[in-house]
């Protein structure tokens, strides 16, 4: 689950928090802990990183930093912090942190090291199903590899966005899925777990011939709220829908005793061309999550994931019988053949009645892996099977659906080289023929704005799983040469640290002939131009002063620090501060007060080391109103507020 990009990153600004006294460090840590406990992992992570960069160390800090990455599927980063925890604070280690460290190491393919940590985990927590399963399957990688060639997968790059896209489900002749993509609305609600917008339902038609998805459109109408909706499941007639939503109903958001908004399953029925107001299922609760509904073939049972009382681990797979209209049996845990002390979620029942689900509690390739349940003749569960590569990867793989009659389907993953934080992949079971010749692809990597070559770029070939096939550096003219397999559909990707990556989906010439693919990279840093207002570029909050005063308040210092950082990073930048008031009060007095405030603001920046020739202040009083709220006008407080502003105009650069 990722990131709202309000605008292109304007500047690379490093804020170094110098924490002198231990009580200040503890205060910062306490602030981060509160965000962490409410699952605001991104906000907490920023504070933890600031503390770590300032030299602060503790077992708790390393635990929380590791967790903030671990629970967002960033295993390379979580491994780094868990390693510090193991090395520096071994006496604080609990079995759970050893398990998370082992899982993180799998995420970066350090399987041998991961196995050693799992052995330590088993010594500390014998009897834990995760430890016993590891001991029972010492050669799990070899066993998983037996199915390597069974599947072919491809990233649906024409469907996926740069943000989270996951949880596909068949519905008539289309796929319904969840996405955090930009909806075009003016107001975006950001989820602090992963710093992305909240999820809504979208739909895309399925091309019967190719399995590709067509134009993406919103789905569900009023079912979509300002919070998360995901994991839909539909009855066979297509007229009833179960889905996951944050604990939000009839305009009211509810939390558990710790202030956390949990997940619930809702039900909606189709009336004509629209869906009814969703109704939450009666076994939901404010104090635990109920999510990821999946209907049985006969629509008489509903499987789901939950951490309700009776759960073995962090979340288990449960089932209820559907007895009538919003009547259900008592939830039943599927038991130890399915559930572990880890995370089991995203159940799915295929048309042939096979139960698929995701888990991180079993020996696997890393993160969440996808499994299918083998059953006995009487229908009882026998054991579970890891689907292996390429369905599974070292990262999180989940939300698997399949049409076993056509051997095609879709699943979700956050594996590297994807479009966004989670992507939807398509798969088939048709073996892939390997071409026997190499083709020639050449091109030039250029700056998208200036069209100048970028001599420091690298260019890679990736297959549609995101696996790296070839990589090369460009020459001083930005030129590259690669030799992919003939006739293979591949991604040509260019990277450079100061630019956003660019890629092209191409098919290498089948006859081995040449192909030219030029790539244009967009700069990560927006160039500053004369006349720009830094207040707008940096999205500064208003610079407030106490009534009838011009001294710099602490809350204003926080915003001015951003301007200071930009001027320090750009030593030729010259800025004029322009202070404005509204029309209320004496004209001459407003002009004098605004001038004092502008000069006071400039003096504050100069006192932090900026040359006086680079910063100046000037007051304009009420002479440059941006609306019709002049003297004697009948304007609201909000309209007057628009005129009370500070501008930081770039004079030269």
UniProtKB/TrEMBL annotation:
Pfam families attached to this UniProt entry: CarboxypepD_reg, OmpA, PD40
Compartments in which it is found: Cell outer membrane
InterPro entries according to UniProt: 6-blade_b-propeller_TolB-like, Bact_OuterMem_StrucFunc, CarboxyPept-like_regulatory, OMP_bac, OmpA-like, OmpA-like_sf, TPR-like_helical_dom_sf, TPR_rpt
Alphabetical keyword list: Cell outer membrane, Membrane, TPR repeat
GO cellular component: cell outer membrane
PROSITE patterns: OMPA_2 (PS51123), TPR (PS50005)
Residue stretches making up the OmpA-like domain: 532-653
Predominant location category: membrane
TPR repeats (start-end): 59-92
Entry's transmembrane regions: none
Protein name: Outer membrane protein OmpA-like peptidoglycan-associated protein
Naturally occurring in which organism (per UniProt): Leeuwenhoekiella polynyae
